[in-house]
Amino acid sequence: xxxxxxxxxxxxxxxDSGKTxxxxxxxxxxxxxxxxVSAFKKGPDYIDAAWLSSVxxxxxxxxxxxxxxKERVTRxxxxxxxxxxxxxxxxxxxxxxxxxxxxxxxTAALASLLQAPVILVINATKTTRTVAAxxxxxxxxxxxxxxxxxxxxxxxxxxxxxxxxxxxxxYCSIPxxxxxxxxxxxxxxxxxxxxxxxxxxxxxxxxxxxxxxTKIASEYLDVDAMIAIANxxxxxxxxxVEKPRKSEQSVRIGYxxxxxFTFYYTENLEALEASGAELVxxxxxxxxxxxxxxxxxxxGGFPETQAGKLSxxxxxxxxxxxxxxxxxxxxxxxxxxxxxxxxxxxxxxTHEMACVFPVDLKMSKRPAGHGYSLCEVDxxxxxxxxxxxxxxxxxxxxxxxxSLKELTTCCSVVxxxxxxxxRDGLLRNSTFAAYTHIHADSVPEWSENFVSTAxxxxxxxKDDLIVTESNKRQIDNRSGGNVSSLECKIGAxxxx
Length: 496
Description:
alpha/beta; Rossmann fold; globular
């Protein structure tokens, strides 16, 4: 069937053009008008998506044609947006920047797939009429992409604004729908760091942000013009697919949900629930042990910024170690891998972690792995069948100290960096840890296998698997009170 979904893509000529500020401000303005909004982020991104979710009041979905088939991307978009008054998609990097010279998987490719008009955000610092040439170049570069308007960012003043606007509207025949000055303190209302913006879970602020964003929109954006452009979008073809019913929740899978671990695609959590899992939130900082769960999912995040707190919560570290030793299925991505390592060194300090894997990691100033990844599963494991191709992404500043020679891995890295030496996917008992992030829409068997393995584990006698005060003492006695020393003594064989 064909449905009408008012929609816009907010794109830029490059990263750091101002797309996120514009997107958040537009969402805040739309909500102030009483409109229901759906937010989307092009590509693999957790932090921008979290901010888009926070400001829109709805779950932001990531749309990525590398990890997920195009048909499923279109279906996910239409199904999530069709009951909203407005759908906003924030692009990533430059409009035509993709995986290769053809611009595969670019923001432009996504806009073309969704038949969505594009608003181009341009940093106008120290330029005037040349911006019109850049806009015309983008308009003519791909006739399948509809560039419907321009927003100018970092405009120096009225004279600068008039020259820019007149040049674009004279030579490009499309409207300027916003002019943002150099916002000063407002521009840094959301601080950044090595992976981008600080996530909402760590944003210690009062309630000023919505008001600031609404003010930016009212003073500097032509919200009415952008609504009109979105309303003129063509109808989009979508396949009506009955939503899968949640299976009977037969197992409990915990996941770390706190200020450290926030990188989870909503689809991954939904897939686990649809496969039969009851999800249990756990704090890696405040809880002292795992609750009564049959599996554990540890997503990505910023364990390095709170490594001292994680390391000081020794009872949780021991609880996770004991669960892994006894065969509980544990799936960890990037930051989760760091938590399961023996230690992490950052800023000259070394912090002990859970020591599920006898590996030491160090943080560097430059990314060790950044971009799309492709892995081939080449060894048995609880989560993926041998021979499975995993399309994912990685963005990590940490890397291994030493080699992988004595470690078991189950994935060959075809594209990307992974753990190094062409490998990813540490494996021990039923614990899997990789730098590669996955999206459940691309590997539906992941959630099914995770739940199936957890179900098998739950049928065993778990009395000795829950870390009570009694077996905490038993672990302490056998390890001399030190998880890391225990691993050094017994190797990778565990407590079992």
